[in-house]
């Protein structure tokens, strides 16, 4: 049996459905932004792309964590 998804990734199925873009596209946008700080990116996703705070926060947290692991 597969363990349930926890943390920021638990938001991903609803992000794709609600905003019509796959998570990979959102991550690409985050990575291509000149902004680098977590809350700057969250605010940008909310104001420029209409994401809710929880969804924006989850995308930024997951993307920055992935990038720091590389």
Descriptive key words:
DUF4287; 70 residues; mainly alpha
Question: How do the strands and helices of this protein lay out in sequence?
Answer:
Blueprint (H helix, E strand, L loop, with lengths): L11 H8 L3 H10 L5 H12 L3 H17 L1
Pfam families: DUF4287 (PF14117)
Protein name: DUF4287 domain-containing protein
InterPro entries: DUF4287
Distance between the termini: 29 Å
Largest sheet: none
User: Can you write the helix and strand succession as a string?
Assistant: HHHH
- What is the helix tally? 4
Spans where pLDDT lies below 50 across 5 or more residues: none
Let me know the number of strands. Answer: 0
Pfam families: DUF4287
Protein name: DUF4287 domain-containing protein
InterPro entries: DUF4287
Organism: Streptomyces hawaiiensis
What does this structure look like?
It comes from Streptomyces hawaiiensis. This protein is an all-alpha fold and 70 residues long. The protein has one domain (12-69). Helix content is 67%, strand content 0%. The chain contains four helices and no strands. Helix 3 (38-49) crosses helix 4. The longest helix is centred in the C-terminal third of the chain and has 17 residues, at 53-69. The model has no long low-confidence stretch (mean pLDDT 93).
Task: Describe the structure concisely for a colleague.
It holds the Pfam family DUF4287. This protein is mainly α and 70 residues long.
């Amino acid at each position: 049996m597969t363990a349930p998804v926890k943390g920021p990734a638990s938001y991903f199925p609803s992000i794709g459905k609600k905003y019509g873009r796959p998570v990979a596209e959102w991550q690409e946008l985050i990575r291509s932004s000149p902004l680098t700080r977590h809350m700057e990116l969250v605010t940008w996703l909310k104001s420029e792309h209409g994401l809710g705070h929880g969804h924006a926060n989850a995308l930024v947290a997951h993307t920055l964590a992935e990038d720091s692991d590389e």
